[in-house]
Amino acid sequence: MSMAYEEYMRQLVQPMRDELTTAGFQELRTPEEVDEYMEKAKGTTLIMINSVCGCAAGLARPAVRQAVAHDVHPDHLVTVFAGQDKAATSVMRSYFIDVEPSSPSIALIKGKELVHFIPREEIEDHEPEDIRQNLVNAFETFCK
Fold first, then answer.
1. Is the pLDDT of residue 1 over 60?
2. Cis ω before 101 (30° cut-off from 0)
3. How far is CA 31 from CA 12, 13, 36, 92, 102, in A?
4. Of these residues, 34, 46, 53, 60, which one is catalytic?
5. How far is the CA of 54 from the CAs of 30, 68, 71, 82, in angstroms?
6. Does 55 qualify as catalytic in the annotation?
7. Which of 132, 7, 121 lies closest to 55, judged by CA?
8. I need a labelling partner for 4 at 20 to 30 A (CA). Which of 32, 43, 46, 117 fits?
C-alpha cells in the first residue's frame, strides 16, 4: 500500500475518530491496548466498533453520543475502528463470544461479560433515536 494512500485514509477517518473521542471515548488502536483494557475492565463499558460507512456516520455515532449524555450511563467508553485498526478490532471482537463480527456495532460489558449488543442489522434502517433508546434502556438495566 502506498504511503500517499495510507496518509489519505488517516486524514479521511480522523473526523470519524474525533466524533467519538470528543464525546469521551478512549481509542484502543492496537491489540495490546485492547487486551490491556479488557484485562483490567471493571464496572460497565460501552464499546463502539466504529466504521466509515454511512450507517456509522448518520446513525450509530450520533445515537451513541446522545445516549452517553443520559443520566445513567456506563462507567467507561472505548472504541476500536473496523477497517482501520484491524488487529485491534479483531482482538476486541474475540471478547464477544458467539457474536458475529459486525461494523458498526455497539457492545455493553459489565466487568468482562457482554450484557448487551447492537449489531449492524439493528443500526441500518433504524432511526438514531431508536438506537439511542435501545442504549438508554440497556444503561438503565445494567449501569445502575
1. no
2. no
3. 22, 19, 8, 8, 18
4. 53
5. 24, 21, 28, 14
6. yes
7. 121
8. 32
